[in-house]
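Thread: Newbie trying to understand structure tokens

Hi all, I'm a second-year student working on a class project, and my supervisor (Dr. K.) asked me to get a predicted structure for one chain before our next meeting. I've only ever worked with sequences, so writing a 3D structure as a token string is new to me. If someone could post the tokens and maybe explain what I'm looking at, I'd be very grateful. Here's the chain:
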Amino acid sequence: MKVTVSYIVVALVCLAQQPLFGQQFKLMRFNEDYPLPDPNSNWYQHLKHVGDSTWYVSFGGEARYEYVLTVNEDWSKEGDRTDQYNLQRYLLHADVHLGKAVRLFAQLGSAFQLGGKYEAGPLNEDNLNIQNLFVDVSPLHQPAQTLTIRIGRQELDYGTGRLISVREGTNARKYFTGAKIMYTTPRFGIDALMMMNDEVRPGTFDNTASREINLWGTYAWLAIPASGNFDFYYLGTHRDEARFEEGVAKETRHTIATRYWKYGGGFIYNLEAAYQFGSFGQDDIQAWTLAIDLGYTFEHLAWKPSVNLRNDYISGDGQPGDGKLQTFNPLYPKGGYFGFNPRIGPANLIDLHPYLLLTPGPRLSLQADAVFNWRYATSDGIYRPSGNFNTSGLGSDKRYIGTAYLLSADYSFSTFIKLSCGAQYFHTGAFIHDIVSAPANSCFFNTQLSFRF
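---
Reply by user tm_fold:
Sure, no problem. This is what the structure looks like when written as tokens:
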């Protein structure tokens, strides 16, 4: 570990003064596109495009190191409640273009947890796995429109990541195995997909697909110049053993939703609504969510302050045993949507979330948040960020869960190296005081150093 830290310090000293280059890395690395370098380009640009204009290969990767400290993570002060550990993540990919019609993308991933009191879970550890391995075939490839068929293991991320996310915040990223058809024009695009949810195991090349289609649907977007953007989607999911406050049973759930959003140009807005129906055992599913995110960026002021307010309503089960399951299922959401390392997820929840973003310079960004959390239905419990059941709510009729206060900062030493730090203090509310015998406020701190090329 000391050797690793020494190399990191040396790298920071060497690269801290380098400029921020024009190319920015994408969340999904297969969405990057590097042009044919000219003869005077440096070695790095030649590494990103080896070959001619249509037959070429591009290489890239990532190393990420994170330190985590938690205090009273489960809101209890009984026993020794402090834990700390280190996380490491490595990704390496090759993007092979065989002309304009065929493409192969392969990526290896590795995630480790070092230390900690508890055994690492699938979000933190996956020693070595195939993160992406798919082939793209494009029978239609024109400047005004493209049609692509993608088959194989692949990452997915749609919209704000509320329902389908790659989970960038966790140490091990999320992926699926299946097929997707993508049609795109400059102002409209639609994806149709059929996927298997892969089971993550901690060993080497031991992850397995579910061997059944348990995620399917379509996701479309429409851009209207000067008026904003629309997303429309339908998603179907199936789980053999889904757990809610209502119990454990087979679940087949359908989600129909829309989103209207616009970023930049001062005003910021992101409005999203979804309705779910289907079956949970013998019960009918009737669930919904409404998310509102509004803000304004003062682009002409120093530090370009952005003042924002997010408000979420996410249904919970109103009356157990009535033949209706009203708990919303967030499917495959990104962790940390409601704070760093939260124990509260997007089910049976009302939250009010004001936050402020500051940009002191091109390298540094700062954010401060406060998240106020209530249960939507007092007869339902609380759920984890993944959507899995966390704690029963039958022992309390209180709604208020607690308030999270957050501070975070990102500093880019160069295009390749970024340092992120975050701290959270969670003040427990009346509901936690009812269900925990020795309640305590919790704290979370992390610092993360990432290198991409």
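A couple of things are worth pointing out once you decode it. Residues 2-15 form the longest helix (14 residues). Confidence is low (pLDDT under 50) at residues 1-13. Feel free to ask follow-ups in this thread.
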